[in-house]
Design goal:
The protein contains 11 helices and 6 strands. It is of the alpha/beta class. The termini are far apart. α7 packs across α9. InterPro entries: CheY-like_superfamily, NreC/VraR/RcsB-like_REC, Sig_transdc_resp-reg_C-effctor, Sig_transdc_resp-reg_receiver, Tscrpt_reg_LuxR_C, WalR-like, WH-like_DNA-bd_sf. This is Response regulator transcription factor. Keywords: DNA-binding, Phosphoprotein, Transcription, Transcription regulation. It holds the Pfam family GerE.
Length: about 220
């Protein structure tokens, strides 16, 4: 669908302030037709069953069930609808989970509206899967190269730590960003190196991103 003015939108978020702000912005900028607003998973499911929608803009973790439930409900009830996930977390594992569940975009709520709206419009027009540029580079691996088979052995938290390592963060900064202790970061780093068969941090990042170790040391 390319006629934005005829796009029927369902907004799903636990915050009324966010849904109302999105409703006004989408209508003013692209003349989207917001046909439903839901603040819980149950409300979203009822809307999906009873209302034809072309686009669902939803929080990653809507109150009432586990993360991404509304994404999966959309696939069940309105398989032709495109889903854009908004989140507060710049977590690569969350972004990949959203796309794996069927979303076409993972965007950050902290982005200026002027940046969000064109990305949402692009999703409606059929743009390839999109991940906010501020989310760790590991989240964009599918568009760059197949990840090493050993990457699948990492836990979700180890993946997040590896993503921060890819950004050049030291242990203290990783601990701060992920709200864990320095000792826990050290434990995760050791596990990552062991599972990837890497000799050091730069080598681990290089193995995953397909670059030379020296490139990550000097950049």
């Amino acid at each position: 669908m390319t006629d934005l003015a005829s796009t029927r939108v369902l907004l799903v978020d636990g915050s009324q302030l966010i849904t109302e702000g999105l409703r006004l912005s989408l209508h003013r900028t692209h003349c989207f037709r917001v046909v439903g607003i839901a603040h819980t998973v149950a409300e979203a499911a009822r809307s999906l069953r009873g209302t034809v929608v072309d686009l669902v803009v939803t929080d990653f973790d809507v109150p009432g069930a586990g993360p991404l439930r509304t994404v999966r409900d959309t696939a069940q009830y309105r398989p032709s609808a495109r889903v854009v996930v908004l989140s507060n977390a710049d977590s690569p594992s969350w972004a990949r989970a959203a796309l794996d569940a069927g979303a076409v975009a993972y965007l950050l709520k902290t982005s200026p509206v002027a940046e969000l709206l064109p990305l949402i419009a692009a999703a409606v027009r059929g743009a390839p899967a999109t991940i906010d540029a501020r989310v760790g580079s590991l989240a964009r691996l599918p568009s760059r190269m197949p990840p090493p088979a050993s990457l699948g052995r990492l836990s979700a938290r180890e993946f997040d730590v590896l993503a921060e390592m890819a950004k050049g963060m030291d242990n203290a900064r990783i601990a701060q960003r992920l709200f864990i202790s320095n000792d826990t970061v050290k434990t995760h780093v050791k596990a990552i190196l062991r599972k990837l068969g890497a000799r050091d941090r730069a080598h681990a990042v290089a193995l995953v991103l397909g670059e030379s170790s020296e490139a990550f040391v000097t950049t």
